[in-house]
Amino acid sequence: MKNLFVGLFLVAFTLTTTAQDKMMKTEVKTVSLEQTKGEFTQKAITLSEGTYVFEISNNAVGHDVGFVLAPKGKTDAANHIKAAYVTKVVATGNTESSNEVTLDKGEYVYFCPMNPTPEYTLIVK
């Protein structure tokens, strides 16, 4: 009888822990961006706070491209959000992704120094 109670307790504990784990997992959203020669086709983005993966496509740029995300006004390399870098440079005709990036409210800029592109605005509300 004692073993039955211990078994039921363990099952209940496991189910509760599993449910809590599922509730605590963050939904990861994908932001798809396309680069053409000298520019991104998306000129501004507004997102809600959360966790994102950036997917960067190279549409006939003619050479490899990348992706930089940084707080607005702080675009030097020391302030780049390094998790937002694509995990592999993006060759012409290909698409590559960043790691997961959790963004808080604020203003950011994104750009590609390899293309090169202007700085575009990303606002997180």
Provide tags for this entry:
5-stranded mixed β-sheet; single chain; 9 strands; 125 residues; 36% strand; Immunoglobulin-like; 4-stranded mixed β-sheet; alpha+beta
Word description of this protein:
The protein is α+β, with helices and mostly antiparallel strands and 125 residues long. It has one domain (27-124): Cupredoxins -  blue copper proteins (Immunoglobulin-like), CATH 2.60.40. 18% of the residues lie in helices and 36% in strands. The longest helix has 23 residues, at 2-24. The model is unreliable at 4-11 (pLDDT under 50).
Overall pLDDT, averaged?
Answer: 88
Beta-strand residue fraction: 35-45%
As for the number of domains, it is: 1
Order of helices and strands: HEEEEEEEEE
Radius of gyration: 21 Å
User: In the CATH hierarchy, what is the superfamily?
Assistant: Cupredoxins -  blue copper proteins
CATH architecture verdict: Sandwich
Largest sheet: 5 strands, mixed
CATH class: Mainly Beta
Q: Roughly how much helix do the residues carry, as a percent range?
A: 10-25%
Distance between the termini: 55 Å
- How many helix segments? 1
Annotation, overall tally of beta strands: 9
CATH topology: Immunoglobulin-like
Shape estimate? globular
SS-derived structural category: alpha+beta
Give start-end ranges of low-pLDDT stretches: 4-11
